[in-house]
Design brief:
The complex is a heterodimer of chains A (327) and B (820).
Chain A (H helix, E strand, L loop, with lengths): L7 E3 L4 H11 L3 E4 L5 H6 L7 E4 L9 E4 L3 E5 L4 H6 L1 H6 L1 H8 L4 H6 L2 H5 L12 H7 L27 H7 L3 E6 L2 E6 L19 E7 L5 E8 L10 E9 L5 E9 L6 E2 L13 H12 L12 H17 L5
Parallel strand pairs in A: 1-3, 2-3
Antiparallel strand pairs in A: 4-5, 5-8, 6-7, 6-8, 9-10, 10-11, 11-12
Helix pairs in contact in A: 10-11
Chain B lengths: L1 E4 L19 H5 L15 E7 L5 E7 L1 H5 L3 E6 L23 E2 L5 E7 L5 H7 L1 E6 L6 H6 L14 E9 L2 H6 L3 E9 L11 E8 L7 E7 L4 H12 L6 E4 L15 H13 L3 E4 L2 H7 L6 E9 L5 E13 L5 H10 L10 E9 L14 H17 L4 H8 L18 H12 L1 H11 L1 E2 L2 E13 L14 E7 L5 E5 L8 H13 L6 E5 L16 H28 L6 E4 L2 E4 L2 E7 H12 L2 E7 L20 E13 L5 E11 L6 H20 L5 E2 L2 E2 L17 E7 L21 H13 L10 H11 L23 E3 L14
Parallel strand pairs in B: 1-30, 2-13, 8-31, 11-12, 15-16, 20-21, 27-30
Antiparallel strand pairs in B: 2-6, 3-5, 3-7, 4-6, 8-16, 9-14, 10-11, 10-13, 14-15, 17-18, 18-26, 19-20, 19-25, 22-23, 23-24, 26-27, 28-29
Classes of the chains: A alpha+beta (327), B alpha+beta (820).
């Protein structure tokens, strides 16, 4: 069995205490929520923080409050199982329920949290390997090395944004609340991400993501489709999150389309606007699907082949959009 | 789960044939069962192996000084500490416990460390300084053949060719001349890992004894399928006589062939323990399981078959090219197995086989469930499907037309005994609605981009290798039974339960024979000191061989018990029967003697009640040519499978909707366990057919973890209808044959044939992943991303070994083509 590196574990019982500890420990500390991704990564020495600050003792991060009319507030420590099974989320924010219910396995969804998933480290099959493996190949720039092994000529890291919740929350136009000892800020979730596999989040080192804020449901419908090899366990190698507001005559009033697992950040497809004012006929769906697929630039650092992932992207987008068509 | 028994009982048994839990079921499901890593001994320390980071390199120097200075580090071993070579086959003694001079794959063991605390092992390994000169790495069959000047392993006589074999049985020229139609195909079967749930682990304990000239005795608890062979190799490498080595297999969490070699970590734990005088535990990580490997060989295959217009096979020529990885392991046997069993399912009147194993800079391949027969069975059964299609014959009718007959001999000399393959085929055809599906297919099988199809395949497997791994005339399995005057029964056997239920089988067989409940019996197994020999859990040999040995031992005791019971009950011994803990008069069942009382009477008469039985396969199971040792078996199991698949032509995703699998097991000793084996095998086959990819990138295993290496979850595995066909074998224990490996083999070609039936395109390589499906469809529709099929191997000409020609004797009942 791989073993954890040594670390000091701090267990604050309030948000204020947690923020204080995080500020005090600085770069040496990492936050841990469910730990389902962090601990395995530590075992592989992808990071070896001397200090972990556990958030599980903070009672005030586990709430789901509000109404579909006002919008919902979801504490960062709400488990993926809770979200997936929540009736209000299933009905009004369907894609979020689908996405969180598709993450990993039932056991890990019981531990994993929405905050943890949203801030999941970017993934790459040159990086998500043991210390022995990475040593053997000579390390990559994301940890201990100099270059990107997927694209050695490129100056940047191409690790993939692989959180199922990320494209969905962008498509739902959600916001997140970040708290630090310096104060707090609320930003649109889309501003949480950066196009950089090494530093994929705009969260400051001393900030704690405490809450996800969902806007009023307001007639929006949403779907999420996930490409992966197995019915469970696997991270997405493509996620398609679509949110639409339809008029009574089924004309699209507003549309957002976001792709996951095709870049280091969730990729918004602006061509979704072509749907607005139209009914979801096969030709317009196909047109948007084709344009959307052009934004997916997979590399050889995840499951299946690059060509395959490119080829099925329009199919998945088309099928996601087709789900909005009333039969 | 559906299980059905499709043959009426031929004989009434009380234990045999009844569904019951495994004897160790409660222990296992409640977590009480002890596995190797659970063992904790006083003063125990921990070990770990430093492995090569390079696929091919010369070791210039090793300096362990800094590691030894780390507080808590007790010992470091390197190659010079264990200089004796070993290997599972006497003909492949090419491994060192720790590398000497060269490393040949990423993961090759280089040094071993023992420390007080497992948490400092990684740090200690990092402090061992190894200077390497990196050598070119050859990562495929084609690369290794193209670069004979880069010699990976000195065992190879020519370039990187480890072993080449060439056989011709019967008159090939006449066979092909008699054909109306000849077809050739290339196939590629990708290798894969066993992925047992339990990673390899061991604890070694040297007990010093200064008054013993050897200096002490060694005990090794290891997660192994073959304690007997590990015993031999540990003794050899440590230079400790076998009398001073004890190997015990505790509960083993799955093996599938991956725990049948002697391993570096076992030998290192033993040597570390000897040096330290303390127990040493080494537990492998999952990545190490992928690196120790010994998994299924990737094999490229070429097959050419002649048939008459009516479908009769007239000749078959088969070539296999095995990617062996860096060491021999079982590879020579595997090479033979890729050619041995083609003749066991269909009548092949003349047959030519050429096989070649090639060294590459990858983890060594070895045996995995279906050892060496899975790859050719895939090729043969897809090739048969193509032939049937070319002849416009139904694939079932084509197979039935050529079926082998029971109690005959094949052209390569194999003795066939019981065979119910025809019944297996009929059953799966009937249950799956094969004919109805084909008739109505055009109307019902497609929904949008989803196309449905059905495919069929047949196969066979050995019930134990006819020959042991090292040449000898001793028994292959032995069982000792001791009766206690309190009524206790203890059964001792070297057989090793790796989850397949071999210990349970011993209990059922002895219970049936002595007329007691299996739960009464104490079982001592897999201990080279306490238990009589059994060669190990490989080649599907244990039920057949240990089962027969157990019957032989139990019969001797039964005879003694019946002798005293006959006198006590004043009943002729022929009338006595034993069941449910009593010996009774068959004509007057009220007249009984309790089992424990019978033991007491017998002990008064005969003294201590101990009996031993053993089993050795009959001679003359195969031919008498060199290399004829692989393939012969005292019996063959048969299986047939129908797969129904749905293929999405837009995404290439394959859903296997259902499998129907009929297995000729002779007689199910416990139908529940047999069904478990059939289903497990079928799911493993399914997984190899559509998921598992053993990919190497830049000289390294690309995905050595259970997250990235795709094994199916319960959400992915299809429904299975298991049909047990019982046609008792004359020599099997109560007529039983194997179930552990055979049922895997037909699943892969059945799925491949079903995919073709669904989309009309052949993908002649495994696994059938969605990207390959799309490429193949694109090629057919003239789009980009051409699927070019399997690239033929540029085989050396002439074939680099002497051709062996052999014919069965004229008086033997040789299977021949119906019209030829």
């Amino acid at each position: 069995m791989l073993r954890l590196p040594p670390f000091r574990y701090l267990a604050p019982t309030s948000l204020r205490e947690a923020a204080h500890l995080l500020a005090e420990e600085g770069e040496r500390a990492m936050l841990v929520a469910g730990g389902t991704d962090l601990y395995p990564n530590m075992k592989r020495r992808q990071f070896t923080p001397p200090v972990l600050i556990g958030l599980r003792g903070i009672a005030r991060l586990k709430h789901i409050s509000g109404t579909p009319e006002q919008g919902l507030r979801i504490g960062a420590m709400v488990t993926l199982t809770t979200l997936a099974e929540h009736p209000m989320i299933q009905q009004y924010y369907t894609a979020l329920s689908t996405a969180t219910g598709s993450i990993s396995t039932p056991q890990l969804r019981n531990m994993g949290t929405i905050g943890g998933n949203l801030l999941l480290d970017t993934r790459c099959n040159y990086y998500d390997q043991t210390e022995f493996w990475r040593h053997s190949i000579g390390y990559c720039m994301k940890k201990d090395g100099e270059i990107c092994l997927v694209a050695p000529g490129s100056p940047r890291c191409w690790a993939i944004s692989s959180a199922d919740s990320a494209p969905v929350l962008v498509s739902l136009n959600a916001q997140v609340r970040l708290v630090s000892e310096r104060g707090e800020r609320i930003i649109p979730v889309r501003e949480l991400f950066r196009d950089d596999g090494m530093r994929p989040y705009t969260r400051q080192q001393d900030e704690i993501l405490v809450e996800v804020l969902l806007p009023p449901a307001d007639g929006w419908q949403s779907v999420y489709m996930k490409l992966r090899r197995r019915g469970s366990f696997d991270f997405p190698i493509l996620g398609v999150a679509a949110a639409l507001r339809l008029a009574e005559d089924q004309t699209v009033q507003e549309a957002r389309l976001v792709l996951g697992a095709v870049a280091s950040h969730p990729v918004e497809v602006s061509e979704a606007s072509l749907l607005v004012g139209q009914r979801l006929a096969p030709d317009v769906i196909s047109q948007v699907a084709t344009l959307a697929a052009k934004r997916a630039k997979p590399l050889d650092n995840a499951d299946l082949t690059i060509n395959y992932r490119k080829q099925v992207t329009p199919v998945y987008v088309r099928r996601a959009l087709a789900q909005f068509v009333k039969v | 789960m559906t299980i059905s028994l499709d043959t009426p009982k031929k004989q009434q048994y009380r234990v045999v044939g009844t569904p019951r839990p495994k004897v160790d079921a409660y222990n296992k499901v409640t977590g009480r069962a002890l596995y190797a890593d659970d063992i904790m001994l006083p003063r125990m320390v921990y070990g770990r192996i430093l492995r090569s980071p390079h696929p091919h390199a010369r070791i210039l120097s090793i300096n362990a000084r800094r590691a030894l200075e780390l507080p808590g580090v007790l010992a470091v071993l390197t190659g010079e500490d264990l200089p004796r070579r070993y290997g599972i086959l006497p003909s492949s003694q090419d491994e060192y416990a720790l590398a000497v001079e060269k490393v040949r794959y990423v993961g090759d063991p280089v040094a071993a460390v023992a420390a007080l605390d497992p948490d400092i092992l990684d740090e200690a390994l990092k402090l061992i300084e190894v200077e390497y000169e990196v050598l070119p790495a050859l990562m495929s069959i084609d690369e290794a053949l193209a670069h004979p000047e880069v010699k990976i392993n000195d065992e190879a006589r020519i370039g990187n060719i480890h072993k080449a074999v060439s056989y011709e049985f019967g008159d090939m020229e006449a066979g092909f001349a008699a054909a109306d139609y000849v077809r050739e195909d290339w196939f590629y079967y990708e290798g894969n890992n066993h992925a047992p749930m339990e990673a390899h682990a061991c604890v070694a304990s040297w007990e010093p004894n200064p008054s013993d000239p050897v200096g002490g005795k060694l005990t090794l608890w290891s997660s192994t399928q073959t304690p007997h062979y590990v015993h031999r190799e540990v003794s050899k490498v440590l230079n400790v006589p076998p009398s001073h080595v004890r190997v015990i297999a505790p509960n083993v969490g799955g093996g599938f062939g991956g725990k049948t070699d002697p391993f570096s970590h076992e030998i290192c734990a033993c040597e570390l323990s000897r040096r330290l005088g303390r127990p040493v535990k080494i537990t492998c990580t999952r990545e190490e399981v992928f690196l120790l490997h010994r998994g299924r060989h990737p094999v490229k295959m070429w097959i050419k078959t002649g048939v008459k217009r009516d479908g009769t096979i007239t000749a078959m020529h088969f070539r296999s090219f095995l990617d062996g990885g860096a060491y021999g392991s079982y590879g020579i046997a595997t090479t033979y197995y890729t050619g041995a069993l083609q003749t066991v399912t269909y009548k092949v009147p003349c047959y030519k086989f050429e096989g070649m194993r090639i060294f590459t800079n990858k983890p060594p391949c070895g045996p995995k469930r279906g050892h060496g027969t899975t790859q050719p069975r895939y090729a043969v059964e897809v090739h048969m499907d193509k032939l049937a299609h070319d002849l416009e014959m139904d694939p079932v009718a084509f197979r039935l037309h050529n079926l082998i007959e029971p109690y005959t001999r094949t052209v390569n000399g194999l003795r066939i005994t019981s065979c119910a393959l025809d019944e297996c085929l009929h059953k799966v055809v009937e249950r799956s609605g094969w004919r109805e599906f084909r008739q109505t297919k055009l109307l019902t099988a497609s929904q949008g981009s989803v196309k449905r199809g059905m495919g069929i395949a047949a196969s066979s497997y050995i019930c134990g290798a006819g020959k042991p791994i090292y040449w000898n005339d001793m028994p292959h399995s032995a069982v000792q039974i001791r009766l206690d005057r309190g009524g206790g029964v203890t059964v001792y056997c070297g057989s090793t339960d790796i989850g397949q239920g071999s210990t349970s089988v011993l209990a059922y067989v002895v219970a049936e024979e002595l007329g007691i409940a299996p739960e009464i019996i104490h079982l001592e197994t897999a201990d080279t000191t306490l238990t009589p020999v059994d060669l190990g859990s490989y080649s599907s040999r244990v039920t057949f061989m240990a089962g027969n040995a157990a019957i032989a031992a139990a019969k001797q005791l039964k005879e003694k018990l019946f002798t005293v019971a006959a006198e006590f009950l004043k009943v002729p011994v022929e009338r006595l029967e034993a069941a449910e803990g009593v010996i009774y008069d068959g004509d007057d069942p009220g007249l009984t003697l309790p089992f424990a009382r019978a033991i007491q009477l017998a002990e008064e008469r005969y003294g201590a009640l101990v009996a031993a039985g053993s089993y050795k396969p009959p001679e003359d199971l195969g031919g008498n040519y060199k290399g004829a040792g692989v393939g012969p078996s005292p019996a063959y199991s048969y299986s047939a499978c129908v797969a129904q698949v749905a293929v999405d032509e837009e995404t290439g995703e394959i859903t296997v909707e259902k499998l129907w699998l009929a297995h000729d097991v002779g007689q199910a000793i416990n139908p529940l366990l047999v069904a478990g084996q059939v289903e497990g095998g079928a799911y493993m086959g399914f997984s190899e057919a559509v998921m598992e990819q053993q990919i190497f990138r830049k000289g390294r295993h690309k995905i050595p973890s259970l997250l990235d290496y795709k094994l199916p979850t319960t959400l992915d595995t299809p429904e299975i209808e298991t049909i047990l066909v019982e046609a008792p074998d004359r020599e099997g224990p109560f007529g039983a044959k194997e179930a552990g490996q055979g049922p895997l083999n037909p699943v892969i070609p059945a799925i491949a044939n079903a995919v073709y039936d669904a989309i009309g395109v052949r993908i002649d390589e495994t696994p059938l992943t969605p990207d390959k499906v799309l490429r193949a469809l694109n090629a057919v529709h003239g789009k980009s991303g051409q699927y070019t099929g399997v690239k033929p191997v540029a085989a050396p000409e002439p074939w680099p070994t002497r051709l062996v020609k052999w014919q069965p004797r004229a008086d033997e009942n040789v299977s021949e083509g119906r019209n030829g």
